[in-house]
Amino acid sequence: MGRLDGKVALISGAARGMGAAEARLFAAEGAKVVLCDLLDAEGKAVADEIGPSALYQPLDVTQEDQWAAAVAATVDAFGPPTVLVNNAGIAESAPLEDMTLESYQRVVNVNQTGVFLGMRAVAPAMKAAGTGSILNISSIDGLVGMNNLMGYVASKWAVRGMTKVAAMELGPFGVRVNSIHPGFIITDLGIPDGVAPAQIHGLLDAHTEHLAPLGRAGQPDEIAKLALFLASDESGYSTGAEFVADGGLTAGYPPPGSQHL
Fold first, then answer.
1. 253 catalytically annotated
2. pLDDT tens digits, 69-88
3. From the candidates 56, 104, 152, 253, which is the catalytic residue?
4. Could you read off the pLDDT of 190-217 as tens digits, one per residue?
5. Where does residue 58 rank: exposed (0-12), middle (13-18), buried (19+ CB within 10 A)?
6. Distance of CA 104 to the CA centre of its chain
7. Helices (H) and strands (E) in the chain, counts
């Protein structure tokens, strides 16, 4: 018997990285999964790999009509969604004086507005069902600041607050809402075109070794396992809370001689 038997999960940003890891694990634990992304080829490949319990649905998280279409596709294929993972996100880096308004708004539109639209889109079905779990992927940058990431940090702090508002409003209907705050995770987010992912992954792992008590960067499946717990009934009394998975990075000041990004 799977830990998510009978659940129907809609996951944004599911074509790769943490979203793909969540989709694979959720399906393995008995859930029906709708993978949503703008990377059609990659998203379809993951859904095909998972099999008949998975469906790929194109989704631009900044568009209201596409969220409505994603929920409708979920209902048609598997029934009303009982789990939502707002996983889609982008990051753009620049010092404060050099960051353009367009860049700032682009990041906020995906990371913050996309989460709002996703929660709003699934809320009626979850309220009607009297059960649901919404997981908003924030970041440790939703708990602390980070140089050169004004838009990203602003959006991830906003996700933390929005999670609490939704938890308060939806709790009386049996719907739980929590935020997950990953540290440095080995994914392809933010890797520039033409740069080998393995090179960036190696630098990230080496950098984290000097900052996090566990001495390494995290893997997507480690976040997926935390998401699995929060999606399941095992976390039935947890809502409006932050769940941190960062190897201890935010536990205290880094060791002497280390440097922040």
1. no
2. 999 999 999 999 999 999 99
3. 152
4. 555 555 555 455 555 555 666 788 888 8
5. middle
6. 19
7. 8, 7
